[in-house]
Structure formats: structure tokens, C-alpha cells
Design brief:
By secondary structure, the chain is mainly beta. Helix content is 11%, strand content 52%.
Length: 157
């Protein structure tokens, strides 16, 4: 869900925390090969955040997963890096859910289509040198807490 607001937009998104053997499953795009991001996407109008994350995980991995719990709520400020939001200020709220990963979980495919673009999936260690979103996963996933954490990031500076 992306809503125009003044000169910018508001995004409502979900992200899945899919961990196995100390690694997290991340997605990437050949259009922006310099960074990775969580499995997930925009909440559709009329859909709850929980419904959205289950749908997005299924669309991107081919596996229907249950939610374990909400882990983080992030408010983020940044400028869009691609059309139609290139250079526009974006205020984004993301709900990150820990997923119940089946012991026998295997990817059905290492690629998926997002609109007309092919994206890929990759297992990474949280301490990998590569840039990925959200950056706070580097420290927070090494020592997860039972509660929900509220994070704020501001890349407008």
C-alpha cells in the first residue's frame, strides 16, 4: 500500500524473518545488485499485516508458512531510488514478523517474479559485509528478544 501524501508517499509494508541454521533468507534484484532486502512487500488494501506477510512469503518462496510472532516495527524515512518515486521523500512503516520455518524447509526456486522483474533469494549470515535492509538485523538477529522492538531509521540526512 503506497499512499501519496504532500510531495511524498507513505508505504505500509511487511517483512519476513526466515531463519535457518543461523542464516536469514533475503531477496535481491538484478536492478539493484548492491544490496539485499527481506522477503516481503507492500500490504494490500483490506489486508492485515499478518495476511500480507503470509501471502508475500508464499509468493516469493512457494511455501506457506505460519507466523511465529511480531519482532519489529520500523519507521523509516528515505528518498525513493526508482520510478515512479525517484527522489521523492518516503515515510515507510514496516512490520517484521518471525516466521515458523519448517525443519525440512527448502526453496521451491531461487528466483521469483515481482511484476515484470526477476528477483532472487539468498541465505546470508547476519554479519555479512554486503549491504542489506534493514541494517539493524546485523545486531538484533544475533541476540533476539521476546518482545517487539520499535526502530526508527532516517536516511534523509
Amino acid at each position: 500500500m503506497t499512499v501519496p501524501c504532500g510531495e511524498g508517499v507513505i508505504n505500509l509494508r511487511v517483512g519476513a524473518i526466515i531463519m535457518k541454521e543461523g542464516k536469514i533468507l533475503m531477496a535481491g534484484s538484478h536492478n539493484h545488485p548492491d544490496y539485499l532486502y527481506t522477503v516481503g512487500g507492500r500490504i494490500q488494501f483490506g489486508e492485515t499485516a499478518e495476511e500480507a506477510v503470509v501471502r508475500e512469503v508464499y509468493e516469493e518462496t512457494g511455501v506457506k508458512m505460519e507466523i511465529d510472532r511480531l519482532g519489529f516495527v520500523e519507521e523509516g524515512y528515505f528518498y525513493g531510488d526508482s520510478e515512479p518515486y525517484l527522489g521523492k521523500e518516503i515515510y515507510e512503516i514496516v512490520f517484521f514478523f518471525y516466521m515458523k520455518v519448517p525443519k525440512d524447509f527448502e526453496l521451491k526456486s531461487e528466483t521469483f517474479m515481482e511484476g515484470d522483474k526477476e528477483e532472487f533469494l539468498r541465505w546470508i549470515s547476519p554479519d555479512i559485509e554486503m549491504k542489506y535492509y534493514p541494517e539493524f538485523f546485523r545486531t538484533e538477529l544475533l541476540h533476539p528478544s521476546d518482545g517487539v522492538k520499535h526502530m526508527v531509521t532516517d536516511e534523509r540526512k
